[in-house]
Amino acid sequence: MYQRLVCLFISLTALFLIGCSNEAPKDFDLGQLTRVDVRETIAQPENEFVIAERKDLDTIREAFNAVRWEPGAMADIQPDRKAEATFFYTYDENMPERLFEYEVYLKDGSISFQSEEEEEGFGTLSKEQSEKLKKLLFKNEGVQVPESYVAEGYIVKKTEDEIRVITEIKKEEIMGNQEQIDFLIKEKYEGKGYVFNLNKIDEKAKSSLNVGQRVMVEYDEANFSAPVNANALKARTVQE
Domain range spanning residue 96? Predict the structure, then answer.
């Protein structure tokens, strides 16, 4: 009986230790950065490549440590060139990598970052640090991205492929059902705001958008209709 109890205690202890070892750390340092995937979102062609050499990762670590972040901020910039960068962090060889994604903007020789993490937000680099990163993150010379713009407001209507966003409307005005909201728009906000096509937004982000949310939408060139019609390039909710 005693031996069985000892065996049971050892088994439970082992399970507890395994469970603890499987917990991912909450913080990741740049020393755990093992790879950066880059996709230049340029007119033609889009260029994809991987940065994995030690000296290149050291350059990225040094520059990234110097980024000045504005937590919760969203970029309002028309860059000369643009890329998407995915940072891969490995904290344990037996566990999956942790991924962090950034929009990277190059404007007048300076690099800035838009993070999906609320605590980072929008970050900027000095021109000196930007110079070190330009050749790593932007391989194609002389090709510009299409202009992009940013709008912030409340979603007042959503269909399968579109959302309507009104910047002037107040939160308390859209607390009713859709019929009440439609009536208010017709009476007070006819022709106001934006209708964003969501075909360029991934399904996960699209499904997270709902009427009543305050959102920030990055969009491409719009037509001058009323309301304005444009293609959404990126959309995220704004905490209030």
Answer: 30-137
pLDDT at residue 226 in the model: 80
CATH number assigned to the domain comprising residue 66: 2.60.40.4400
Domain edge (last residue) among 74, 107, 137:
137
Q: Write down the pLDDT at residue 24.
A: 42
**Per-residue b/e over 197-231, b at no fewer than 16 CB within 10 Å?**
ebeebeeeebeebeeebebbbbbeebeeeebbebe
CA distance 58 to 85: 16
CA distance 35 to 90: 9
β-partners of residue 33 are 89
Does the predicted model carry a pTM greater than 0.70?
Answer: no
CATH number, residue 170: 2.40.50.140
Residue 142 lies in a domain: no
Residues 87-107 have pLDDT tens digits of 999 877 777 788 899 999 988
| Alpha helices for 88-235 (secondary structure H) | 127-137, 178-188, 203-207
Same domain, 92 and 178: no
How does pLDDT run across 194-207, given as a tens digit for each residue? 999 999 898 888 99
Residue 145 neighbours by CB distance under 10 Å: 18
Nearest to 124 by CA among 189, 70, 161, 74: 70
